[in-house]
Design goal:
Keywords: Cell cycle, Cell division, Signal. The chain has 386 residues and is α+β, with helices and mostly antiparallel strands. It has 13 helices and 6 strands.
Amino acid sequence: MVVAVRGSSKARLGTLVAAGLLAGITGVAHADVKAGVDAWSRGDFPGAVREWQAPAAAGDADAQFNLAQAYRLGRGVPKDLGRAEQLFGAAAAKGHLQASDNYGLLLFQRGERAQAMPYIRSAASRGDARAQYILGLALFNGDGMPKDWVRAYAYLTLAQQQGLPQASGALAQMDQHVSMADRQKSVAVASQIAAETEATRARQLAAVDLGTAPGRTAVDETPAVPASSRAPSVATVERAVAEAERVAGRSSPASAGADYTITKPRVAAAAPPAPARTPVPAPNRAPAPTRAPATARPVGPAMPSPAPNASGAWRVQLGAFGVAGNAEALWVRVRGRPELAGHGKLLVPAGRVTKLQAGGFTSQADAAAACARLKSAGFTCLATRD
C-alpha cells in the first residue's frame, strides 16, 4: 500500500495510480481531506472515510477520488465498484486526472468501450502504462478501431519498459506476427509518442503553476497482479483490463512518460522482504613459496580483453529515454551480459529522447539472436540497422 499527501506541483506530477496535478487547497475541506489521508496512512480506513464523506458530498474532487479508492478497494466501506465509478466520474468532471483515468478503466471493464476510450487515450497520452497496454492491444486486434500493428507494438513496448508485466508476454506473442520492418518502424513511433507525452506533461505542470488546474491531496493504492500469458491475437481488451486496471503506474515526473525502464518496486503487504545477502569473504591465501630465480617459471602475458567489433552495421536497441541518465543506468545493468560482450554503448539522440543501443553486430541474424536472449532475461530489445 502506498499513501501520498500531495504538495508541490513541480515535485509531483505522476500517472494514473501514483500521482496527480498538485496545488495547495485551502479551507476546511482541504484540512478534512488531509486528515483523511493521515488516517489512511495509519491504517484507520473507517476514520479516513468519515473525514472524506462531507467534503466529497460538497463536491471536493480530491475527497471524491479518495472515497472512490476506498470503495474500489473495500477499505473502511464495503467494496462497491459501482459507487467507486460514480465518485471517480464526479471527480473526473472537475478535472481530476487520476479520477479520470480510473473512471475510464472501470467503464472499459464493464463493457462501455466507446465511452471509455477517450479516457484511455487521454491516460495513454500522459504515459500511463496500463492505458498504453490496453490501447496497444486494441490497435493490434482492431478492437473498436482500425488495426495498426506498428503503433500497437510501440505502445506495448512503452508499457513493457515501464515494468508492466502483461506487456512482456504480449510483445513475445506479437514478435511472431509483426514483421521486422514494422518493428523497426515502431522504434521511431515510440520515440514520437514519448516526446508527445513529455509535452503533454509539461503543459499540465504549467496549468498547475498558473492555477488553472485543481490541486490534489490523494491516496494511492498500487496492488500488483500476475502476468497474463494469453496471446494478444486472441486476447480481448475486456479480459486484459481486468488485470491491467490494478497495475501500478509511475510516481516521478522526471521518469514518467519517456523513462521506460527503471521501475519503482511494488509494495505488497503480504510479501516478506527478501533476506539480505551476506557477502562471502574471500578465503585467505597462503603466501606462495619463495623460489630460486633459476627455477622460477615464466609467467605468460595476460590475455587481452576482446576489442569491440565496431565494423558491423547492425545494432540492438534497449530503450528510448526522456531522461538521459536512465539510459546510462540501464547500460550499467546490461553491459556485463554475454550477449553484449565486445559491443560498445551508443547513445543516439532522437528528438527529445535518447536511444540506448549496442553496436557492431555483423548481421541482422546476430543482432536478432542477441535480442532474443536479452528478451528472455526480461529486457526490451529490438534489432535495428545503422
